[in-house]
Specification:
Length: 509
């Protein structure tokens, strides 16, 4: 790829418009990782499926996106950054429409896979283009504005998806992409078509592509079917796990030794990038799992609508909007490791806070921790994206962006599947304990019957109370695990070497 120093930068209104368009495209692609989170009960009901099967609409998109994200560097070199961005947004528009028209869960999952394949390159391509068109003095500002969309999108998704699901239908969570993506595609072509990068006719690494598709595909099928097959008690799941692990190992060996790898794993030689990538994997996996688990608990156990569940999550974005540009400005004055560690400490504390939730908790009581989370998210993500891209050479920017976003998407898919499965198992186990410790159940039943209920109705009421408490305890247990994972990442951040001098990290790019 051509060094960005050979490409004229943009100024004024043109620069602002380009940043807006690229940020909006990024926003839409990330939005679709969470927009159906709170609509899972609606989707499952529409296709007569279980809530767990409904989560396939989340994991299929995430894992498919994870396949094309690490290919971003190679795609940008072979086809050009602008051309690849336009192709990706066109495909994303078409398959969004197809998702909305799906007539079965299998069809929806299939089109979500295609939507994820198309959406994968959008974020890395947008990030690479911003680095190329922004003048050195304005790069941090541009990246701060762009990062706001990556922070807000996972938060806006649930509230938008919930509102649409409860009013005009969950299918509009996909239809809404069509006009936005069409606008982004047209505007990007008008603004950026003269700034295409040089195309490099590299050999096509067919073996690398096949290996990537093999292990990612096996992983997706395993995640989607693990709980229904009792995970590793099933030879089918064990076979998929073996294919995923062996395929991954062979893929890494091949890509590290091939002369023209489809995924440039050599960027992991940079220590700062490697630590940032690991921190992204742990943190985003735990964070994403938390924003999947919370609306599921609110709707299944607390009787919330999809819209109300979305409102709870949306409070994360209120302070996030304010803190993101502040975090970008602080990069030149404060050790970014301290910012990231502090942000993770806040996230860990907020999720741990949830371990004290009870079934009588009210809407207002959940607002404060969500607001606090909005402070922690940008304090971590803005410096992380900045440092990770600063650690690599200019020609490696697209590859590095693709890889770190690959880890983000694959972590979200794995964490969603594992946490939802573990949550369901924990509910069953906790229910046994609750039933075993239930004191004087016959007196409770008699009390319900004395209130005018029949014996059958009294049994159903008591069973509902047991199930509600079991679900609450299981949810708190999952929150404990997620909080600890993020706390580990907060400590691991200090493995990053101390940045030298002011953090004008993008000037070399």
């Amino acid at each position: 790829m051509v060094d960005r120093r050979s490409t004229p930068t943009m100024e004024g209104v043109s620069l602002a418009a380009a940043i807006f368009v690229l940020s909006l495209a990024t926003f839409v692609s990330i939005l679709d990782t969470t927009i159906v989170n709170v609509a899972i009960p609606h989707i499952a009901g529409a296709f007569a499926a279980s809530p767990h099967e409904g989560t396939w609409a989340i994991t299929s998109y995430a894992v498919a996106e994870a396949f094309t994200v690490p290919l971003s560097g190679w795609l940008a070199s072979r086809f050009g950054v602008v051309r690849m961005f336009l192709l990706a947004i066109a495909g994303f528009t078409i398959f969004s429409a197809a998702c909305g028209l799906a007539t079965s869960l299998q069809m929806l999952v299939f089109f979500r896979v295609l939507q994820g394949l198309a959406g994968g390159p959008l974020m890395p391509m947008a990030q690479t283009l911003i680095l190329r068109i922004a003048p050195p003095a304005k790069v941090e500002m541009a990246m701060g504005l762009w990062m706001m969309t990556t922070i807000l999108a996972p938060i806006a998704g649930p509230i938008l998806g919930g509102t649409l699901a409860d009013t005009i239908g969950w299918r509009w969570a996909f239809y809404i992409n069509i006009p936005v993506c069409a606008l982004c595609g047209f505007a990007a072509w008008r603004l950026l078509h003269t700034r295409e990068t040089q195309r490099v006719k590299q050999p096509i690494d067919y073996v690398g592509m096949i290996l990537l598709a093999l292990w990612v595909g096996a992983l997706q099928i395993m995640l989607d079917n693990g709980e229904n097959h009792d995970w590793f008690a099933s030879s089918f799941i064990l076979t998929l796990f073996a294919i995923a692990v062996i395929g991954f190992v062979v893929f890494v060996i091949w890509e590290m030794t091939d002369r023209a790898p489809v995924v440039d794993l050599r960027v992991f030689r940079h220590r700062t990038f490697t630590v940032c990538a690991l921190a992204m994997t742990l943190t985003f996996g735990a964070f994403f799992a938390s924003i999947v688990l919370l609306p599921l608990w609110l709707q299944i156990n607390m009787g919330y609508t999809a819209t109300l569940s979305g409102y709870i999550l949306a409070f994360q974005g209120i302070l996030g909007i304010v803190v993101a540009p502040i975090a970008a400005g602080m990069m030149s004055r404060i050790d970014p490791r301290l910012m990231m560690s502090s942000g993770l400490a806040i996230l860990s504390a907020v999720i741990w806070w949830r371990t004290g939730y009870a079934t009588n908790i009210g809407f207002n009581e959940m607002i404060l921790p969500q607001l606090a989370m909005g402070v922690g998210i940008p304090l971590f993500f803005v410096p992380l994206m900045t440092l990770s891209m600063a650690a690599v050479k200019p020609a490696e920017t697209a590859s590095a962006s693709g890889l770190i976003n690959f880890l983000r998407t694959i972590a979200s898919a794995i964490a969603t599947a594992l946490v939802v499965s573990a949550w369901n198992s924990s509910i069953r186990e906790t229910r046994v304990d609750v039933v075993g410790n239930l004191q004087r159940p016959q007196e409770l039943l008699a009390g319900f019957q004395g209130g005018g209920h029949s014996h059958a109705e009294a049994v159903r009421i008591l069973d509902g109370m047991v199930q509600q408490q079991s679900t609450m305890l299981a949810t708190n247990h999952m929150s404990q695990i997620l909080a600890v994972i993020i706390a580990i990442a907060a400590v691991g951040i200090w493995l990053i070497p101390r940045p030298k001098g002011p953090s004008k990290v993008y000037l070399a790019h």
